[in-house]
Amino acid sequence: DMVLVDHVKPFNIRIKALFKAEGLENRLWFVPYQNLHDGSLHRFIGAVDFYVNNGGYSGHTALSDALWSARVVISLPGDPTLAGMIATDLHGAFGTPENLCRTNADATERINRLLQSPTDYAEACSKSERCRRESSMYDSALRARLVYAALKKAYASKAEEQKRRETVGAAMSSLAETDLPEVTDRLAAIGIKIKGPWQPDEHTVEI
Questions:
Q1: Are 62 and 75 in contact (CB under 8 A)?
Q2: Alpha-carbon torsion (116, 27, 63, 33), positive or negative
Q3: What's the whole-model pTM score?
Q4: Which entry of 16, 68, 147, 148 is 20 to 30 Å from 7 by CA?
């Protein structure tokens, strides 16, 4: 059976019509949104045989929840955009790239093969459990360290840039107004002509 989240009425009517046209109206079920914070969502996802992640936007947080809870997650490719490629990255980080299918036909073939082979399905479920234990994707401490390292690097880079600006500014301000004509004459003597006022950060020259 197909289980979908209960959306607005027009969506439900359209989906029901599609299933009815295929003679599958009795195989479609709608369920209300599940609460993420009390664990209802993860318990619900964990109860289904397959979680199918459609293409387009390609999952994001919903796919992360599914990989954490579902027995087997099958994903379709997203749009050729940054948002559409999230499923590829998540399956790769989680450790189940074989469940990222390139086309609808590939996804159907993958699901049917697992349904028809209890051994393959059990192996896929076992791999999902193993990935949940071993993958660093849900390691909050590791993610916190990575964020800290990135922020520290960004701060150090900004501090170095500010230091360079202050050094340049100090060097240029050390030139007294009376020194500027002499500097200009010396540059002119070697073929460099200053155009306009000498500025600390930008100036133009002619050679």
A1: no
A2: negative
A3: 0.57
A4: 68
